[in-house]
Structure prediction request, 646 residues.
Amino acid sequence: MNVRQLVIKEILHRKLNFALSLTAVIIATASLVCSVMLLRLYDIKTTEILHTKEAELKQRMDKLKDDTRKSMLKLGFNLVILPEDQNLSDWYSDDYSTKYMPESYADKLAASDIIYIRHILPSLQQKITWPERKRTIILVGTRGEVPNEHLSPKKPMEQAVPDGTIVLGHELHTSLGIKVSDSIKLMGKTFKVKNCYTERGSKDDITAWISLKDAQTLLEKEGLINAILALKCLCTDDILPVIRKEVAEILPGTQVIERGSKAVARAEARIQVGAEAKLTLEKEKEGREVIGKERRRMVSVLIPVILFACALWVAFMGYINVRSRCEEIGILRAVGVSSKTIFMLFTYKHIFIGITGGLAGIVISGILTFAFTSSAPAVQKALLASFPAVKLGLMSVIGAALLTIAAGWIPSMIASGQDPAEVLREE
Amino acid sequence: MIKLNNIIRSFNGPKGKVAALNDVSMNLSSGELLAVKGPSGCGKSTLLLTAAGMLKPDSGEVLYDGKDNPYNYSPDKRSVLRSGLIGFVFQQFHLIPYLTVKENILVPALSMPDENNSTRAEELISKFGLEHRSDHLPGQLSTGEKQRTALARALFNRPKVIMADEPTGNLDDENADTVMDHLKSYVDDGGAVLLVTHSARAAKFATRTLNMKSGLIVS
Prediction:
């Protein structure tokens, strides 16, 4: 027979004392392991929620961006490049520029590496009186969009008007009874009607489009244009100053005007919504971070309290055990068992309580966690993948054993220091 | 074998110090069964524990084999010294309740593991007629069997001396005689027994008797 066998037999004899100590260790270990698991679970769920929200935000932003792009295409050009000396008061009242710039500016702009401007359309526009029909119209000469050389081609927003042809706005062709393929005279030159637009509800309804070359001839402005229309990219906010700076470098002597439009408002709204959504997401992140910190803080307070209570309980049970075994200790000492062996007798018992309690605590924690996460297999899988089970298990068992050794130290010392004569003399 | 010279040992009582042993001297030799008799509280058990190296005297000297004073050693060293020299038998048996008869007999082997221990225990079980009780717990034994188990445990390490404190106090005459027969047999084989008793029947087995009264050996 050896000390370990004696310990096992004593445990089996005093089951209640052992069970009460074991329960304390199980509770302490399970609390510790469950806390770690729950904190990890919270992190995993946080990551999952944030990923979902980020994906939703991205989807929403993409949709808004797409909507805006479509709106922009429907609502037309939102940038106008005018000669620098054009008085803007006149331009706003007349709706066309009375100053001119070289037609080559459009090509120069398209050949540049500017990225915030698409759909470059040179035009020569003037309000005139149609002499043959005695009507005030807006004559627009255009040669079609000049493609950006360094960007992927886009479908043009405005088609070119071939030489000798004319396109009429709704008010003009309906009030004058003109149809497609009719031949009409404008400022002495005969044009074939290529297209008659439907009603747009804008000045386009009193506009006539001819080729730029024809317009330059009729208006005696060879090689000149008075505006370049373009579409500003709405990929980021507040880029107008950047565009102005870049255009000024590429096309000296010009100015850039942004036309207010529903599309711009919508783009701004999109940016605003995006910013708010991002802010909400950030707040969500911060909120969850705060909750996570709070939980960690609570665990860091609660766990030592539980461990301390467990240690106190184990020490108390150890003391009761020593008290109830006075006679046994006395006789062991009388027959020559050393105080060191008596100490080990109690310490082995505490180690056994620590190890079995630690293992049972881990198993119970595992079962609880599985039960808790059974409705979310993905979370369960992620938890298992990220969980250092072996390391934590080993640390918990060793920790529990150390805790019980420490807790049982004083009772073990009392036992080993007990005077056998005191016990035997009381007989 | 064990010699006590001028031992004084007192305890704190409610009315001050009480002398349990008052200048007691005695000698215990091999082949001797020394009975110490006296009324309760006369100091018999104190004398036994002091002689056994378990209760340090206030003054005086205890000598084993005429040279070793156990109280010159640390408690653990004294314990080792005791385990090879002295066996104990008590009135209350002091068997460990969760160990079987055989395991109780093996308790002194905790400090000295040996492959022959089990054989030695079986020899003692046979000697004390406990074969059929070998695997029983103390709670399942009669008082006579309990005391025989305690006696077997005391003899496990082949001690030179048995300290017996009222070993027949809880036994009927038949069992008491059996125990005393065993102690007598042990003495006949060269051992020594210090028997503390107030039983005249047990004292009859003694080779010598000391009478104590109020901490003094009176005859």
